[in-house]
Design a protein that fits this description.
Helix content is 28%, strand content 19%. The chain has 185 residues and is of the alpha/beta class.
Length: 185
């Protein structure tokens, strides 16, 4: 069992093609490619944290169809486009606004994480090494040593595992402002 993270899939959202249209010829191509990418990396027994904007514009029936076709045990951090048709899907637990979790990588190292749809400049546990994962920005914000975007736009249109996320954060040059300020003192 592994844990994966993703966000901003925007299933059924014709407006997202303005941003992603070059990569996908149609909305059906978009949704199909994201479903295929998800199922290429996620197994039936894996956990997936979706950090918001699962679907926008899709009918209840289409949301349910897509949800059913995605592997893994799915949890949702609510995004700004997640309406009742998304919130009422059979998530493992009711959707949350934020979450503080601990996950282990393949080597057994435990990582404390703060999950939110929106990027935070400071977050609970930052001073104790808690990492921050977020969505919403569609890969437009630079990573820091302790935070990064898990959205499909930033990760080749598929969920990403903890090892890749930590490696990417470790390669980042920027520190969160609070840590950078104190590094100068």
């Amino acid at each position: 069992m592994a844990t994966f993270f993703t966000s901003d899939t925007h299933f059924g959202d014709a407006h997202i093609l303005r941003q992603r249209g070059v990569a996908f010829g149609s909305l059906n191509d978009h949704d199909g490619a994201l479903i295929e990418g998800w199922n290429d990396v996620v197994g039936a027994d894996d956990d997936v944290w979706h950090l918001g904007d699962f679907a926008a514009g899709a009918s209840r029936a289409r949301c349910a169809e897509i949800f059913e076709g995605l592997r893994g045990r799915k949890r949702l951090i609510r995004g700004n486009h997640d309406t009742n048709r998304v919130l009422e899907l059979p998530w493992v637990k009711p959707p949350q606004e934020t979450a503080r979790i601990t996950v282990s990588d393949a080597d057994g190292t435990e990582w404390r994480l703060f999950l939110a749809h929106y990027a935070h400049r400071a977050w609970p546990g930052l001073w104790r090494g808690t990492r921050h994962l977020y969505g919403h920005t569609h890969g437009s914000l630079p990573d820091t040593r302790f935070s990064c975007d898990v959205g499909v736009d930033a990760w080749g249109y598929r969920p990403v595992g903890i090892a890749a996320l930590i490696a990417r954060q470790d390669r980042a040059v920027m520190l969160p402002e609070e840590l950078a300020r104190d590094a100068l003192e």
